[in-house]
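Model it.
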Amino acid sequence: MNLRALGLRAALTLFVLHGAYSFWRDRPVHPPSGILAPTEPIQLTIESAPDIPLGDWRLIPRASYDITARVLGRERYHFDHIANLVPVDLALGWGPMSDSEILKTITISQGARFYTLHWITSPPFPPNELMLHSANTHIIPATQSLARRLERLRVGEVVHIAGQLVDAERTDGSWAIHTSLRRDDTGDGACEVMRVETLDVLPSSLP
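Modeled.
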C-alpha cells in the first residue's frame, strides 16, 4: 500500500472515530418523569444600558433573563447570516414541557432558526398550553468558555441559564435581529435572543 493510500485510510479512520465520539458525547439523557423545571422564566425590563460591542455586532440589552428549563433540542449553525454571533439555538421547555411523560407524546425538530412540535398522540395538555411553556432561543455565549460548554449540552438535561435578552445589529448596518420579549408568541420574530452569562446543568438531569 502506498503512502497516499495509507494517508487516506488514516484520515477515514479519524473521521469515523470523530463521528463516533460526537455521537456518544451528544447522546440524549433520559431523566425520570415529573416536572423537572417548575418555575417560569424571570424577565425584568432594562430601561437603559450601554450597547455591548461584540466583533462585527453591537448588542442592545432589552431585559435581564433567568431561566431554568429542560433542553428539548440543540441545533448548531455555521453558515447563515447570524452564525458568527449565534452559533447554537436551544429549544427549551419548562413546566409541563419538562416532564418526560408529556414529551413522550411529542416530537421536536429544529432548523432554519425555528423549532416545531408534532403530536404523536393527543397530549394531556392543550397544545397552546404546551407552547406557552417552551421557546426556541438564539444563544450568544458571553465567553469562549461558555461557547465550549454549550457545545457539550445534551438533549434532556435541565439547565439554569442567566443573562440578557438583546437586539443585535451588524456594525455595517447590513443585518439586525430582534428578541422576543413574550412567551405567548409564535412564528417569525418569536424567538428569544439571549446573551448568556452563566450556564449550569442541574444534578436532577445528570446521567
